[in-house]
Design goal:
Length: 272
């Protein structure tokens, strides 16, 4: 890989002085890193238990679980934050929220709130390849997006909804963001055109130039997709404004110019 084509990762080394770490009971790793502006509301709602002494961490209430009243209270509080301008968007879509040492979701929460409270979230990113793997499709994010509007992204990228598998998310996003239908999907499967690349973990401060800075912690499942001959992506959900097909040199230039989002640059650079 050309040295110039490596995504900028300088922002992964950050301090957490503006965030309150919140644990899940006796876990050794914090479950969330909550911006200070939200902490008092969580305490007042009984969602977070106050530390009784300097050595005791803040912890989420143990009764906070899927289908519980506290889960509903959390969702209602997040909606209040949005209406008060304390969250940049409301997607009406929930993410599963996990404790660090568990593979079973503890509860569900609106996706924008989950990201802005520093919970681990998950997403699928796809390098869409054409011309026998010599060209790659990039998507330009809509200017209406609440994060990174107008920047270049992977052809397909999206978060795992609550209860959704990685595979289901992959094909759903392929349809919504690129118009890849069932026949195209079957052709790709028959030709063994879908390949997992790697899992990428991102931790960085986002939104520093906005009113909503937060510590992003996200797990990306990266895939390579060899597209059927002649396939041209067509957006279905309004989240993409245009597509660009680039060769490796063109991709390198765009990464060097910081035209791609940080996560898209990391995934796209796996092709180089």
């Amino acid at each position: 890989m050309p040295k110039s084509a490596v995504a900028d990762t300088s922002r992964v080394c950050v301090h957490d002085l503006d965030f309150q770490a919140v644990w899940w009971q006796s876990e050794r790793e914090p479950m969330a890193f909550v911006p200070m502006a939200y902490v008092q509301n969580l305490l007042e709602a009984g969602l977070v238990l106050p530390a009784k002494d300097p050595l005791q961490p803040y912890c989420f209430h143990p009764a906070l679980s899927a289908g519980s009243q506290l889960e509903a209270d959390f969702q209602a509080l997040a909606l209040r934050w949005y209406r008060e301008g304390k969250l940049p968007a409301w997607r009406e879509e929930c993410f599963d929220v996990y404790a660090p040492g568990s593979t079973k979701a503890k509860f569900r929460l609106e996706r924008v709130a989950a990201r802005h409270l520093g919970f681990w979230t998950e997403a699928v990113h796809v390098n869409g390849l054409s011309a026998g793997g010599e060209m790659m499709w990039l998507a330009r994010r809509s200017m209406a997006k609440d994060s990174d509007p107008g920047m270049l992204d992977n052809m397909v990228a999206g978060g795992l909804s609550a209860g959704e598998s990685i595979e289901a998310c992959l094909w759903r996003e392929c349809w919504e963001e690129a118009g890849l239908d069932h026949d195209n999907r079957q052709q790709i499967i028959d030709n063994e055109g879908l390949k997992p690349l790697r899992i990428i973990h991102i931790q960085c401060i986002e939104g520093l130039t906005t009113a909503w800075p937060y510590l992003r912690r996200e797990r990306l499942y990266a895939f390579s997709l060899s597209l059927p001959q002649g396939f041209v992506p067509v957006n279905q959900d309004g989240e993409v404004s245009a597509y660009h097909c680039v060769d490796r040199k063109g991709l390198t230039h765009r990464i060097d110019d910081a035209a791609l989002t940080q996560d898209a640059a990391l995934v796209a650079s796996l092709w180089l």
